[in-house]
């Protein structure tokens, strides 16, 4: 009996009581706000973004390669270590991630482009081929030029082999004997060449 009186005397008033009506009211208010928000979004027409285009600038990844830079914690973003994107105002730490960033969805959306590529028509493809044909310089080689270059190279190699064979034959016959001109023994000794002479006696 004494134990039941002790349990009844415990103060549990600090616990929060669950009020079902209050939470139902909060849920209704939240649903109302979400429906108002969705209506305001759907009022305007969907944003039409331009299709992807070629870059009209060179991506400079190598200019700061191997250079040191003093980094301070109070420096603006554009002067911090890494690659700074002016469009998105963010710093990327290395060149691979910077390239991923500028090719990514977030950057392209900031530029006003979607990630879709414009579909080319047959006329556009034909025009592009014509432009590339005109750009082709007359100095480029065809298959005939390639065959001719190969033939010339083979002739040069054969000529080189023939010369080598002739030199070997001449050496065997003893016609080509190159001897160093002999120095005066006194001059050679003065210059310190006395011990470097050949062991042959003439």
UniProtKB/TrEMBL annotation:
Q: Which residues constitute the signal peptide according to the record? A: none
| Keyword Acetylation listed | no
Region described as Disordered = 21-55, 140-202
Compositionally skewed regions (Gly residues) per UniProt = 192-202
Bias (Basic and acidic residues): 21-39
A cellular-component GO term for this protein: spliceosomal complex
Q: What GO terms describe the biological role, i.e. biological process, of this protein?
A: mRNA splicing, via spliceosome
Print the keywords alphabetically. Answer: Metal-binding, Nucleus, Zinc, Zinc-finger
Q: Tell me what this protein is called.
A: U1-type domain-containing protein
User: Which organism's genome codes for this protein?
Assistant: Capsella rubella
């Amino acid at each position: 009996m004494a134990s039941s009186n002790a349990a009844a005397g415990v103060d549990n008033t600090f616990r929060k009581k669950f009020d079902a009506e209050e939470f139902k009211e909060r849920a209704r208010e939240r649903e109302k706000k979400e429906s108002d928000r969705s209506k305001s979004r759907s009022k305007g027409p969907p944003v039409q973004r331009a299709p992807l285009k070629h870059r009209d600038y060179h991506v400079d990844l190598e200019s700061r390669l191997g250079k040191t830079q003093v980094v301070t914690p109070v420096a603006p973003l554009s002067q911090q270590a890494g690659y700074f994107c002016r469009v998105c105002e963010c710093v990327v730490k290395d060149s691979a991630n910077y390239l991923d960033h500028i090719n990514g969805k977030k950057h392209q959306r900031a530029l006003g482009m979607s990630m879709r590529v414009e579909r080319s028509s047959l006329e556009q493809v034909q025009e592009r081929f014509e432009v590339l044909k005109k750009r082709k310089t007359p100095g480029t080689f065809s298959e005939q030029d390639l065959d001719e270059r190969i033939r010339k190279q083979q002739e040069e190699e054969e000529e080189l082999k023939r010369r080598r064979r002739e030199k070997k034959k001449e050496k065997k016959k003893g016609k080509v004997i190159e001897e160093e001109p002999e120095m005066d023994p006194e001059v050679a000794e003065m210059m310190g060449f006395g011990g470097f002479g050949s062991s042959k006696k003439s």
